[in-house]
Amino acid sequence: MSSERDSETTFEEDSQPNDEVVPYSDDETEDELEDQGAAVEPEQNRVNREAEENRETFRKDCTWQVKANDRSFHEQPQFMNTKFFCIKESKYANNAIKTYKYNAFTFLPMNLFEQFKRAANFYFLVLLILQAIPQITTLAWYTTLVPLLLVLGITAIKDLVDDVARHKMDNEINNRTCEVIKDGRFKIAKWKEIQVGDVIRLKKNDFIPADTLLLSSSEPNSLCYVETAELDGETNLKFKMALEITHQCLQRENSLAAFDGFVECEEPNNRLDKFTGTLFWRNTSFPLDADKILLRGCVIRNTDFCHGLVIFAGADTKIMKNSGKTRFKRTKIDYLMNYMVYTIFVVLILLSAGLAIGHAYWEAQVGNYSWYLYDGEDFTPSYRGFLNFWGYIIVLNTMVPISLYVDHRDASQNNHSKTEQVDFSWNTFADGKLAFYDHYLIEQIQSGKDSEVRQFFFLLAVCHTVMVDRIDGQLNYQAASPDEGALVSAARNFGFAFLARTQNTITISELGTERTYSVLAILDFNSDRKRMSIIVRTPEGNIRLYCKGADTVIYERLHQMNPTKQETQDALDIFASETLRTLCLCYKEIEEKEFEEWNKKFMAASIASTNRDEALDKVYEEIEKDLILLGATAIEDKLQDGVPETISKLAKADIKIWVLTGDKKETAENIGFACELLTEDMTICYGEDINALLHTRMENQRNRGGVYAKFVPPVHEPFFPPGESRALIITGSWLNEILLEKKTKRSKILKLKFPRTEEERRMRTQSKRRLEARKEQRQKNFVDLACECNAVICCRVTPKQKAMVVDLVKRYKKAITLAIGDGANDVNMIKTAHIGVGISGQEGMQAVMSSDYSFAQFRYLQRLLLVHGRWSYIRMCKFLRYFFYKNFAFTLVHFWYSFFNGYSAQTAYEDWFITLYNVLYSSLPVLLMGLLDQDVSDKLSLRFPGLYIVGQRDLLFNYKRFFVSLVHGILTSMVLFFIPLGAYLQTVGQDGEAPSDYQSFAVTIASALIITVNFQIGLDTSYWTFVNAFSIFGSIALYFGIMFDFHSAGIHVLFPSAFQFTGTASNALRQPYIWLTIILTVAVCLLPVVAIRFLSMTIWPSESDKIQKHRKRLKAEEQWKRRQHVFRRGGSSRRSAYAFSHQRGYADLISSGRSIRKKRSPLDAIIAEGTAEYRRTVES
């Protein structure tokens, strides 16, 4: 045990996972996991040890080399990889992305390969080859070729249409343009033409085409603001900053064209917020980190232009590394179908073998002694039996069903129609879309009778870190968090508009009057303080502190005399009951002397060389006291309409809902309550809680293990006592800890020590296996524990972790998983799940293009699953059961016929009837049922979500149902054969002729079969339309029309060898006796089915049968209304924290002036000036 612990230890054994950190460096990258280095020979130990001692860790990891403005550098032999035999290509990917599966050359072979992986398709291909052998076949080749080509063609067309859509999206992205340095100038180039080492220019609102090192920008200190919605789903801005040397030296076109920097960095990986590298330029090295990298998929915001050096392109970019591999998905029924087809193969082989043996025996006993049966071939009976085995394989091929493979307004606003909206025309900065009805509040603001009302909105306009920009004369706020942006916008709508800021001033429009305030200090937010403050000097010379923060920290710092304290507390309780995010606002008048003394301490703490943050927090505490409370704000997470109702219905349908998000824990928990996934009566478990439970379970399992452990049946022990509702909230860091996914380090001795003997190698292998088994057991225990919870929220997780959680559920629960997401960070998860759903929204189309289904709003998921998903399952199950039934009924007639033809593999039908049976005569009704059938209406499906459970339990299609269809088909085939046989034994027609020939017998069976199977689909249909009725009777009419045409003398004259049933139909079907035989046969086949269905619905009705029975009463009842969600919980005292910026440091940027734009030359002027310098250089 000790040796195991010594050889495998975590980086920080004593440290606890950090809930606030997204573990983007979660473990190995996907490439590292797939490519674990092979063991080096023992004689290399000394060389390895010396290399390890002399090589820095950085140099070992950073093997990716990029040379600026030098494409030929990346085409050197050392950067070439062998792709196929002697064909080599650069390890540096081009910038073209590919999400499609096929191209013009690979479509046909790859699509056919995928289709022939289906057992039935491959079987029919082999069958077609067998039919080309004349000694075997008794059927024409076209009887198999026509259905096979039809199925392959329809599936190929469907796949082609899907792939063409992917091609169009890829072309649209690859043909986007940006400016690239070529021949010393910036020139327009397509994204797909960009290569590693290129210097590019991006403008405001441009998408970033590749992972790029920021060199300079139009902002002070070369700041660059980016929106990362496609990466992490967050719409708030993040800032990047270039190196000081590149900011100073690489602003102009000529200097960028002459830039010859050399970058060494890590290999391409999927870690979104980690980057390690070094820039070598002008004989100096400069360290690079993630704050200097612009990632593909982000959007440039609030920055006029920026320049960058391409580091990773195309498939090597981090967003593409997180996309995962495109997986070919198949449904559960598809997998089950393959096993059923294998079962049919076995039955087919057994039947063919039995009939072949029968033929060999018949030949030995009868055939050899019957001179009139001599065919000119002197084959032995056993050889004739062997040939007939393959003949029956062909004749009975239709047992295998090839055709199956075609594959925010409040409720309180309801009364506002009678109340006049507030007119905001007096406020030129107001949002015209705002609907507000409280005239009293507007009167208080405009009159100024209550000064604290104005102070309230002034605080919202001044105390923040929002950046402002003007676009076409309109104010555009860029906030570090959505909540800050919402509050500043609210202040603007009520007359207090934030207009501009500099390093030490802020300008506010107060009811139309512009006033500029001096900013003396910004007291930044952090997760411990839970508040931020700003100290300003008014134009009159007064000094005030304005503060906003969580009520738990504000109330501790209030002055004793606060008349609105209790009133605000009552409001906070109401807000908390609605799970709104609350914020308290307060202010304080500061004397000049007091401020000067405090400012000295503040400046000293600001320049402290050690523990600066702690020193600043201590100084902040001294000034943030004796505050006067102004009031409180509340912000609701604006969920899409219908989210709580959708989650409630899905839960009633026994669907487990897990939330996987990159948001911080507090935000994720707020959303959980807002969408009613979490409720007040739930006990919430966190990572530290379940870690202890899982550790105890692992110890118990280890103690029970031993020599006899494998003989003891596993016992399922619940983690929690039954009867209590629980939810699990776990962060990505805890997820790595619990699932043993943390990156490990090995001691240098063990890392360099290679096994010298076979015993050492065996012990090391066993140790590795034990660790893998322990990890697997731990993961299984986690999935079991999580499944006992009513809700699971995984927050602060990476795209890779999202996919890992989905994969764990698939692996250990064997459950069907559906993943729904709206951003590029969800692509890997969407591809991993059985069903991937993309929401087309603000975060781009990456999720949509990688999904199986897409729609605009989450609430549509309930219709996708509870209505269309359930209908589709019922239709598919009926479709499959019916197809098996009709094919067995059709094919097994040959089996009964073989007993009367010497087991000679002769068919009981005409060849053209066999060819067209599945294609024309019996296909349209079942296809329409598969498209239109519904047991209950969509409204009733949504009203009774429990109907969905039938599909989850596979009750409508399984092996039992398969064998029922098999028996039904066998009995039908017996009736179809033996009733006409009995009728034909001794028959004389009205004209004295006996129509008891083989061809008339075949027509009688075929006619009875077509009428029976088409009426059977009518019995299976729950939702009747004119189209259904027309298809059933139309298919029967089509059969008779084609049959009379094929049996005419005219077509026989044209094709005498292909149409040999001349006059049979007209001769046989003019006999009433034949029609009576057909009617009797159909009645015997269908009446027992009607009786059994009637008894089943009367004695053992299903849930849908009960609803169908009472559907008129249910429709007459009052329409089911969705539950209103605004005042949905009145007894909660839960506090939901305000969402400040996720990224500390905005206040420092503002107060230091690094983010304040000075007056600079516009981009056009810089380009013109650079062009002039370039021309002067050329002329000289």
Automatic annotation (TrEMBL):
GO terms for biological process: apical protein localization; bile acid and bile salt transport; bile acid metabolic process; Golgi organization; inner ear receptor cell development; negative regulation of DNA-templated transcription; regulation of chloride transport; regulation of microvillus assembly. Residues 75-145 form the P-type ATPase N-terminal domain. It is found in: Cell membrane; Endoplasmic reticulum; Golgi apparatus. Residues 25-35 have a biased composition (Acidic residues). It catalyses: a 1,2-diacyl-sn-glycero-3-phosphocholine(out) + ATP + H2O = a 1,2-diacyl-sn-glycero-3-phosphocholine(in) + ADP + phosphate + H(+); a 1,2-diacyl-sn-glycero-3-phospho-L-serine(out) + ATP + H2O = a 1,2-diacyl-sn-glycero-3-phospho-L-serine(in) + ADP + phosphate + H(+); ATP + H2O + phospholipidSide 1 = ADP + phosphate + phospholipidSide 2. Residues 848-1102 form the P-type ATPase C-terminal domain. Residues 174-238 form the P-type ATPase A domain. Residues 43-54 have a biased composition (Basic and acidic residues). Its main location: membrane. GO terms for cellular component: apical plasma membrane; cytosol; endoplasmic reticulum; nuclear body; phospholipid-translocating ATPase complex; stereocilium; trans-Golgi network. Keywords: ATP-binding, Cell membrane, Endoplasmic reticulum, Golgi apparatus, Magnesium, Membrane, Metal-binding, Nucleotide-binding, Translocase, Transmembrane, Transmembrane helix. PANTHER family: PHOSPHOLIPID-TRANSPORTING ATPASE IC, PROBABLE PHOSPHOLIPID-TRANSPORTING ATPASE. This is P-type phospholipid transporter. It comes from Panthera tigris altaica (Siberian tiger).
